[in-house]
Amino acid sequence: MMTTGVLDRARDRLYEPRPPRRRAPGIVELSFSAVGLVVGLSFFALSLTPSLLPREGWVQGIESGVSFMVGYGIGAGLYAVARFFTVPPARGRVRAALLVVSLGAIAVQASFTIWAYVGWQNATRLSFGMSPLSPLVWPVIVAVAAATAALLLVIARLVRRLFRWGDALAIRFLPRRLAVALVGVVLTALIWWVASGAFVNAFFTFSNWTFSGRDLQTNPGATQPELAEKSGSPASAVEWDDLGRQGRSFVSTGPTASDLDEAGPGGALEPIRAYVGLRSADSLEERAQLLLDELVRTDAFDREILVVATTTGTGYLDPHGVDSLEYLWNGDTAIAGVQYSYLPSWISLLADQAEVEETSRVVFRTIHDYWSTLPDGSRPQLYLYGLSLGTTGVEAVLSSVDILNEPIDGALMTGPPFLNEMHYEITRARDDGSTAALPLLNAGRTVRFADESGVVAGNTAPWGSTRLLYLQHGSDPVVWFNQQLAFESPAWLIDGERAPDVSATMAWYPLVTLWQVLLDMPAAGSVPEGFGHLYTVTANLQAWNAVTGSPLDDGDVASLADTLERRADAIEAELESSS
User: Which of 56, 122, 53, 47 is nearest to 524 (CA)?
Assistant: First the structure.
């Protein structure tokens, strides 16, 4: 009898009517969570602190609006969870005291960051050689932040309405707590599938279609080459129209033998540039074979230096990276590349990771198999090169078994993105006393690091027969973004380890720093050269000189760097005037 009473009471509690809950605000109603506002304002203040790169007003507005809504969501969510588990809320004097302390702390924090923001930004901008911001940027920041936060709030309330509809439906058949938990899991999984699956696939498909049309265009200054040493010329088996936008620029620009003679000792060779576009052949294997055929046709294997370059997403090869090598070796070079995507790098980082690795392996294997059959004394030195996502392809080759029997001579990897596992492992395993921004590994026996000032000091071990070099900036968000930034302070922000181009006032904050560095990535190519993701011709020249061991002495390299900087400035001015 007693047992029956206990069971009855347990059943009554399990199926007790749902207590009335406060009406949720309408989708556009001006009603907000007090806890959410407090936490959101704190996140807003933190978003104003410095990041890796300077920020324009509208970018800061987006960053602050998103940061506010992240904080608002955390605060409102924690309060909702507390109510769900019937945690008693603060009342009376306790509630008043908590409110006063919270608002006071937020007021102090927000006032300080708002006051200091322009000064922080201008300190970074001036160190980058950029013009300072005016305090008049604040109306832009506030307007964009408010619009961004409002849009996200509307979306969040629409999602909440969906969840409440699901709750109301499930409660008809299940106990309340079980219904709410089950609906939460199911709808969260459904939204995640739509966002990360169907939506992402549709975005990539649309982007590929859009940018494939742009690939048919030709960049200003790109004209079909007449020299047989270039792909796309009348002597080439690769059609000019099939090279793609960036491929056409690669083969039609760069220094000629006469340009090299003007800057060097004379007697320069015409640099060989071999390239195959996505439209040049139907399959990856056919494109790789076509590239090898181009190298054989141009007698590339008779040159001193042969570089297998992995392009970025659109097929781009950085002129600073390829031109500098040709000047350094007086044209006794051959550089080969294959396009694998139509997408720009910021999309390729997400969509083309597997594609770039597979393309790099197949292209390298095709060329390496032929190169390894040539007599050791008469074949060229073989190097790999990649910028940004291209370095991911280079690392894929370095980790393959293809080079065990016939090792390559080296590789230059510029601006390696956060995807690169080898770069991550080397940085983590760095020698004691070296910094995360410019690590040392085994005293530089195989892998070394460089920035704009050259190869990092402290490499005391002899550099082996295969020389690997990473060229990177401390201010390059493409290099330093990592999902761990959400909840872990990075080593590259520790005092004594941060690079000189990283603001001394930049600090780490949970979630906020992750979003700051993520938003820095699209702007990484819009800062002056020598910062962010833009590497100067001098830095590339110094890096190639270190990797290839050119016959030039330090004075000749410095003089050549001055010449190349003037040439780059003249080309940029000419392009600006023509546009």
Answer: 53
DSSP designation for 483: G
Local structure of 521: helix, strand or coil: helix
Locate tokens 């809320």: which residue? 89
pTM of the model: 0.87
Q: What angle do CA 388, 393, 399 make, to 5 degrees?
A: 130
Q: What is the pLDDT of residue 18?
A: 46
Tokens of 306: 């042969």
Beta strand ranges found along 347-504 (DSSP E): 381-387, 410-414, 447-451, 454-455, 467-471
Cβ-based burial of 396 (10 A; exposed 0-12, middle 13-18, buried ≥19): buried
Low-confidence residues of the chain, pLDDT below 50? 1-2, 6-7, 10-20
pLDDT for res 13: 46
CB neighbour list of residue 323: distance below 8 Å, 6 or more residues apart: 254, 255, 537, 564
State how far the Cα of 379 lies from the Cα of 23, in Å rounded to an integer.
78
- Tell me which residue of 71, 77, 45 sits closest to 60, measured CA to CA: 45
Q: What is the pLDDT of residue 87?
A: 64
CA nearest to 255, candidates 335, 321, 307, 326: 326
- What 8-state DSSP symbol labels residue 197? I
> Within 429-495, where are the H helices?
477-480
Distance CA 372, CA 468 (A): 20
Please tell me whether residue 97 adopts helix, strand or coil conformation: helix
pLDDT at 64: 94
- Report whether 41 contacts 68 (CB < 8 A): yes
Give phi and psi for 270, each to the nearest 5: -75, 120
Q: Alpha-carbon torsion 296, 301, 306, 308, what sign?
A: positive
Residues 517, 477 contacting (CB under 8 angstroms): yes
Task: For residue 383, list its beta bridge partners.
Answer: 307, 410
3-state SS class at 386: strand
Instruction: Determine the Cα–Cα distance for residues 424 and 451; give it in Å rounded to an integer.
Output: 17
- The whole-angstrom separation of Cα 450 and Cα 411 is 13
Model confidence pLDDT, tens digit, residues 96-110: 777 778 778 888 888
Count of other CB atoms within 10 angstroms of residue 528: 12
Q: Which two tokens stand for residue 354?
A: 């597997």
Domain range summary for the chain, segments of one domain joined by + = 26-170, 215-578
Token pair for 219: 């960049």
pLDDT of residue 400: 84
Q: How many CB atoms lie within 10 A of CB 319?
A: 17
- pLDDT for the residue 124: 93
- Confirm if 565 and 538 have CB atoms less than 8 A apart: yes
pLDDT in tens, 245-304: 999 999 999 899 999 999 888 899 999 999 999 999 999 999 999 999 999 999 999 999
Task: Specify the amino acid at residue 66.
Answer: V
Tokens of residue 283, six digits: 């399959």
Please give the backbone phi and psi of residue 480, each rounded to the nearest 5 degrees, phi first: -100, -10
Q: Give the residue ranges of DSSP H helices in 215-341.
A: 245-252, 257-263, 284-297, 319-328
Residue 310: φ, ψ to 5°? -95, 125
477 and 485 Cβ atoms separated by less than 8 Å: no
